[in-house]
Give the backbone structure.
Amino acid sequence: MRRRYGAGPRRLFPIPADDVDPSEAVLGRLGLQHWAVLGVLAEHGELTVDQITRLLFGSRSTAVRHLGVLVEAGLVRRYESVRGRSHLAHYHAGAAGLRALRRRLRQEGRPVPPKLGSETFGRPVVTEFFARLAAAPDGHLYRWRRHVDTALWLASHDIHGVRPQAYSIWIEHDVAVRFVLHIDDDSVTPLTHRAPPPPTRELAGYRTAPRGVPVAAILMITPTGLRERELHQGLATAPLPVTVASTTLRRCSRAASPADAIWNVAGAERGTLVRLAEIPHADQSNAATP
């Protein structure tokens, strides 16, 4: 259950409904950083203040101030969870904000991303992964692509039937790791109540890639350790022509960063974890033991 709030006691202008577009005067008050915040929310879905601070600003107060203006303009919606004790606030781009962003992109002659602002499977996990990896101090995240853009890019390499959530390049010192990210779904089919398929089924399309897989690694986040073991058992029986590394939601959330030694490389020595930058050439001499 969630409650919707305004930005605070000080109102710059009335908060319109989602079906009401702000006037040109209101949009004209927005600066480049306001549009940057709106773009990040449209691309990644619901974000917290801390996530937006890590991605765009050096201080939390600056992030709160920019979000407040967007909320007052009716471009961004603020929700506060009533579950638990934290009452953590989340922000997402409203319908009016998405319309305004599409118009601005077209006016600037820039492409509008496919399904901008649409909900996707695993988006909260992907958003947290992106925010924390982008803020990691040991390297640099380059050229992040969302799920639709990644699927289209893979299709141009004749890779079909896969459901990647993202693509990017992680650069750490003199190592660059090009990867695609998958989120394992272990939920029971809602209509037929069938058990979830094995984790390897989602990756089967990579096995038949006629021109090879254009990444150094496939990363998969599994909801449980059991699903991770099932993944590695399946890959041992039918390996892929590309390195596959996994981590669990628990291990990823407890680490300081997704770049840390949380990755279990398929086919490597059992019981060892490596850093993201070490995945393509997993070296047991610098691997960590879970």
